Amino acid sequence: GWGRAGWSRAGQGRAGPGARSHGLCLRSPDGGSRSDRAPKIYTKTGDAGFSSTFTGERRPKGDRIFEALGATDELSSAIGLAGEFSSEKGHAFVEQLHKVQCMLQDVGSNIATPLSSAREAHLKRTSFSEKPVLELEQWIDSYSEQLPPLRAFILPSGGKSSAALHFSRAVCRRAERCVVPLVQAGEADPNVAKYLNRLSDYLFVLARYAAMKEGKEEKIYIKPEA
């Protein structure tokens, strides 16, 4: 189920949305509760093609909420891969990527809490502010000032770190496309869509920055001859 990702609130040291709604209650073989055993990774609660939101709704796994959650999870995985390549090259921005992954957990928490069925207690745990959006803008400005002017359409390239960041950017755009309808329907916070929009810009700028720092060539679009 979707609860496996945890949707933990970054820095707050508590299980987030998902753990409660996906039956992660530890049980011994005789049915008694056990607190000294790890839960099984499979819960079987989604075998019929349904999963739960944080608010307790059971929805089909093809619901747009789960599409958005899946795209966000894929985005975090792509950024994780880009972070590993970047770490091998000693890039200082790796810590920023880790922070972004933590913020994406909070993005998932908000998406998993449709406002149409959320109670006040849900909203307090899964709200998403504009502060992370402003932080991304600061990072974008900082790296942009160090880059050469953009004079041509850049193809995903520039070494492994850069190419992986470009791939993350593309996944981010898809995640944004999944989230926007939820925001327009009043089911998710507008700041979530804003964050994903800025994040794709950040990943693009960071990909260029990584290529520059590594001395790698950015391939540009050249119109094929007829």
Automatic annotation (TrEMBL):
<protein>
    <recommendedName>
        <fullName>Corrinoid adenosyltransferase MMAB</fullName>
    </recommendedName>
</protein>
<keyword id="KW-0547">Nucleotide-binding</keyword>
<feature type="domain" description="Cobalamin adenosyltransferase-like">
    <location>
        <begin position="41"/>
        <end position="210"/>
    </location>
</feature>
<comment type="similarity">
    <text>Belongs to the Cob(I)alamin adenosyltransferase family.</text>
</comment>
<comment type="subunit">
    <text>Homotrimer.</text>
</comment>
<feature type="compositionally biased region" description="Low complexity">
    <location>
        <begin position="9"/>
        <end position="20"/>
    </location>
</feature>
<dbReference type="GO" id="GO:0009235">
    <property type="term" value="P:cobalamin metabolic process"/>
</dbReference>
<keyword id="KW-0808">Transferase</keyword>
<keyword id="KW-0067">ATP-binding</keyword>
<dbReference type="InterPro" id="IPR029499">
    <property type="entry name" value="PduO-typ"/>
</dbReference>
<dbReference type="Pfam" id="PF01923">
    <property type="entry name" value="Cob_adeno_trans"/>
</dbReference>
<feature type="region of interest" description="Disordered">
    <location>
        <begin position="1"/>
        <end position="58"/>
    </location>
</feature>
<dbReference type="GO" id="GO:0008817">
    <property type="term" value="F:corrinoid adenosyltransferase activity"/>
</dbReference>
<dbReference type="GO" id="GO:0005524">
    <property type="term" value="F:ATP binding"/>
</dbReference>
<comment type="function">
    <text>Converts cob(I)alamin to adenosylcobalamin (adenosylcob(III)alamin), a coenzyme for methylmalonyl-CoA mutase, therefore participates in the final step of the vitamin B12 conversion. Generates adenosylcobalamin (AdoCbl) and directly delivers the cofactor to MUT in a transfer that is stimulated by ATP-binding to MMAB and gated by MMAA.</text>
</comment>
<dbReference type="InterPro" id="IPR016030">
    <property type="entry name" value="CblAdoTrfase-like"/>
</dbReference>
<dbReference type="InterPro" id="IPR036451">
    <property type="entry name" value="CblAdoTrfase-like_sf"/>
</dbReference>
